């Protein structure tokens, strides 16, 4: 199977600029392609992981990836999919975030012996002469056509700044630069990037009279069409400090039955025959597929040892075995052992604030052991703690924390 056949079979492909030409190219040649990642945070999230998995499949088929860090484009910010202008970031913050991205990407892409390339568009964007840029690049773009692009259209009512309007040209110029430097002929990205990707294809074809192509991957959504990867704490991050391996594991363990097969296909290396077998399971048996999904994805992101710990913690809470040592644990001071529960939860970081803790209690979503806490002014009492000074606390149906007195 060609790389395109593999990506199609696993459900990655959403749109292609020139399907027949791309199919022939990937079947007959080994190409250089790229995906861009703007370092707007200090960690990659699950949306980036889908892009990296598509890139890894391409690399496994013999094609050479370029991971393009957007040290230049992040100075402006992509308006695609955003209701308002992104926060303007400092160069220092962008560089720090880019360093975090580099470390995480190396887990999924093989950079040894030139098998992949890491670039940063700050190298050619930050020192551009604006007049020269307009003469070389801007002259090839129709404002009327740009305004019809989906990434701009949805912002027209609220207002689109001229600052952001330049983003499409910058991304197109990235593709041109990578074509000139490395012979890169294919750009890949999420489906919300379609207009930006097409702009790069057209620029290369006009400037270089050469074949250039793009394809988009589907965004990770639930069977109901809602964006996947959001938790009560925000995005589902790949950094263990921002989303713990246990919380990461539990996210996949608890997804809807209807989403299991798609996630197995997109986020794991399991053969498609096995993906289809697991995805066909129903009722209680689908839990087996969810456990496999959670373990496989957590292993890829955090390593097999952390995945085993997370699985063991989940089994201790919901199954018939395992120990509690790997359940998310916080430590409190002795004087907090008889403190107000809402105050202790906020101080320990279990809730974001005292107000959130009170709302959790008022909504009937907090349990100490099997006891529901309904009084917002309730305090911990010694009898709640086991002999080793610990107690198990539950938020909602499935979020557990172990509290231990120091």
Features:
3 domains; 5-stranded mixed beta sheet; 406 residues; alpha/beta; Rossmann fold; 18 helices; 6-stranded mixed beta sheet; globular; Structural Genomics Hypothetical 15.5 Kd Protein In mrcA-pckA Intergenic Region, Chain A; Tyrosyl-Transfer RNA Synthetase
Largest sheet: 6 strands, mixed
Structural class: alpha/beta
Strand order in the largest sheet = 1-6-5-2-3-4
Kindly report how far apart the N and C termini lie: 57 Å
Q: Tally the beta strands.
A: 13
Name the CATH class of the largest domain.
Answer: Alpha Beta
What is the tally of helical segments?
A: 18
Chain-averaged pLDDT:
89
Strand content: 5-15%
CATH homologous superfamily (4th level) name of the largest domain: HUPs
Helix residue percentage: 40-55%
Poorly predicted regions are: none
Compute the gyration radius: what is it? 24 Å
User: What does the overall shape look like?
Assistant: globular
Domain tally: 3
What is the level-2 CATH architecture name of the largest domain?
Answer: 3-Layer(aba) Sandwich
Report what the structure shows.
This protein is of the alpha/beta class and 406 residues long. It folds into three domains: 215 residues, HUPs (Rossmann fold, 3-Layer(aba) Sandwich); 97 residues, Tyrosyl-Transfer RNA Synthetase (Orthogonal Bundle); 77 residues, RNA-binding S4 domain (Structural Genomics Hypothetical 15.5 Kd Protein In mrcA-pckA Intergenic Region, Chain A, Roll). 43% of the residues lie in helices and 14% in strands. The chain has 18 helices and 13 strands. Strand 10 and strand 11 form a beta hairpin. The radius of gyration is 24 Å and the shape is globular. The model has no long low-confidence stretch (mean pLDDT 89).
């Amino acid at each position: 199977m060609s790389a395109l056949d593999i990506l199609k079979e696993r459900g990655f492909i959403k749109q292609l600029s020139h399907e027949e030409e791309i199919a022939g190219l990937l079947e007959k040649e080994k190409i250089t392609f790229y995906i861009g990642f703007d370092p707007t945070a200090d960690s990659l999230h699950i949306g980036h992981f889908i892009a990296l998995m598509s890139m890894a499949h391409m690399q496994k088929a013999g094609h050479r990836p370029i991971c393009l860090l957007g040290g230049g484009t992040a100075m402006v910010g992509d308006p695609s999919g955003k209701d308002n202008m992104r926060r303007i970031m400092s160069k220092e913050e962008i560089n720090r975030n880019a360093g975090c991205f580099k470390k995480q990407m190396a887990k999924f892409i093989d950079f040894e012996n030139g098998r992949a390339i890491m670039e940063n568009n700050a190298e050619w964007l930050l020192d551009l002469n604006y007049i020269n840029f307009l003469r070389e690049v801007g002259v090839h773009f129709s404002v009327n056509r740009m305004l019809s692009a989906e990434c701009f259209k949805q912002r027209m009512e609220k207002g689109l700044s001229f600052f952001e309007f330049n983003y499409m040209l910058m991304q197109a110029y990235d593709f041109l630069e990578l074509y000139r430097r490395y012979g890169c002929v294919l750009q890949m990205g999420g489906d919300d990037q379609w207009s930006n990707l097409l702009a790069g294809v057209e620029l290369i074809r006009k400037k270089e009279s050469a074949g250039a192509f793009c394809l988009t991957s589907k965004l990770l959504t639930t069977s109901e069409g809602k964006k996947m990867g959001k938790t009560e704490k925000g995005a589902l991050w790949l950094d263990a400090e921002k989303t713990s391996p246990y919380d990461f594991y539990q996210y996949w363990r608890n997804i809807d039955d209807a989403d299991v097969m798609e996630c197995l296909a997109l986020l794991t290396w399991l053969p498609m025959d096995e993906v289809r077998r697991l995805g066909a399971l129903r009722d209680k048996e689908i839990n087996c597929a969810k456990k496999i999904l959670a373990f496989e994805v957590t292993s890829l992101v955090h390593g097999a040892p952390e995945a085993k710990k997370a699985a063991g913690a989940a089994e201790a809470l919901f199954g018939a075995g395992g120990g509690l040592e790997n359940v998310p644990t916080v430590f409190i001071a002795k004087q907090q052992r008889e403190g107000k529960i809402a105050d202790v939860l906020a101080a320990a970081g279990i809730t974001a604030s005292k107000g959130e803790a009170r709302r959790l209690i008022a909504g009937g979503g907090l349990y100490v052991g099997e006891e529901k806490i309904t009084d917002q002014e309730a305090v911990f009492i010694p009898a709640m703690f086991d002999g080793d000074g610990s107690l198990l606390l539950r938020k909602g149906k499935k979020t557990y924390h172990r509290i231990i007195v120091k």
